[in-house]
Every structure is written in C-alpha cells, then in structure tokens.
Amino acid sequence: MKFRSSNYFTHINQVRVRKKLMSPTHKNRSLSDIETDLMNCLLKAPTIDYPWNPADIDTADYYARSDRHFYFENWSDAELYDRSQSFSIWWQSL
User: Fold this and answer.
1) Organism's domain of life (predicted)?
2) Chain centroid, CA 93 distance in Å
C-alpha cells in the first residue's frame, strides 16, 4: 500500500467539509446560526491561564515555565545568526 502525503489528506478533508457545508441541509442557514455555531466552537476551546496581573506572585512562575522552551541563551552568536537566516529563507519560500 502506498503511503499518501498529508497534503492529500488535507485536501480530502477540505473537500468533505466543503460538501457538508454546501449540502442542502446547510445551504439555507442564516448568518446568525453560523455565528452562533462559531461562538459555540470558540467557547468550547480550551482556555490558557494567562497572568493578566504582572504584580501577581504566579506571574514569574508562568513566564519561567513558558520560557523553558527557548534555549537561545546557549547558542553562540554565529549559530543564532545561521539559524535565523535559515528560518528567514524558509519563511520567504512559503
């Protein structure tokens, strides 16, 4: 069996969604129904605990935990430059 790329599956999913949205049962939906569905989806999304108050004690812990994913301080200036150039080239190719 030949493995198909993720682009193929993305395309198939887009076609399925398009067919579902354009089906006769969804064709005559009002804008308010669509907006209500969108709001319901957004409200069901998981929330992220963000420290809105910088004076809060937990704020420093929050930023320390989130900064653990970045290791730039261990990189030399040359390595940081090389990686940023590679990223820039990749970004411009999109």
Assistant:
1) Bacteria
2) 20
> Which H or E element spans position 73?
none
* Residue 59 CB partners (closer than 8 Å, separation 6+): 51, 53
User: Residue 51 burial by CB count (10 A; 0-12/13-18/19+): exposed, middle or buried?
Assistant: middle
Contact 40/46 with Cβ under 8 angstroms?
no
Give dist(CA 89, CA 41) in Å, integer: 35
If phi > 0 it is left, if psi is from -120 to 50 it is alpha, else beta; for residue 70 that is beta
Whether the Cβ atoms of residue 45 and residue 37 lie closer than 8 Å to each other: no
Tens digits of residue pLDDT in 44-72: 767 666 667 778 888 888 888 877 777 77
